[in-house]
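Checklist before submission:
- one chain only
- standard amino acids only
- sequence pasted in full

Submission:
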Amino acid sequence: MGSEKRQEEIRAKGFDMGRYGQDVLDYGKIKVGTKTLDDAVLNLGTLDKINRPYGNKFMVMKALADRDISTIRAISDYFYTTSGIYSSVCDYFANLYRYDWYIIPEVLDDKASTEKVVKDFSKILNYLDNSHIKKLCGEIALSVIKYGCYYGYIVPNSRGLILQELPVNYCRSRYNVGGMPAVEFNMKFFDDNFKDLAYRMRVIKMFPDEFAKGYMLFKQGKLKNDF
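Returned file contents:
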């Protein structure tokens, strides 16, 4: 009797699918127009809809022969969603490494107190713990396996490292700046994927401020075209 009563309580809290299979769950909605969450990032992995026979062998072979990178990525995403074997292989290789990390403290000031050293060391540990390095590296590796590359933008946050993933089909990297690869981003991404102007502006606000500035310059025709 106790177990049956417990199940009734669980269903009463909203886990019952309702009558005639209707879902009665209520989900909260995040207002992307206002930054209520400092670490909110947009999931760009499910924007494109499957509308072509990506499972057709001829299409797969043609995309490989033509080096049609955009179609190859769409095919990979299609198989990752529909094929358990393909998704399992991708997940296996993405998480093959352990992605362990460690810190080597170095005291540069002989006059620094022990309390200050311990405090700074703990601060760094908390920052990396909150960054979830293993999970983050696994997600990056999975994107590389599925799409051949990964582009991300570091979102400033004092609590931990946060990356906003960028759409691979709208990014490229052809040169280095200060010894680091420079990422070029095509602002047409927002126009191509978000036709409704109001919703488009709400999505742009989810990106770092540099993207909003770049998009405004793009719409004003002040960004020089680079072919």
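Reviewer check: The radius of gyration is 23 Å.
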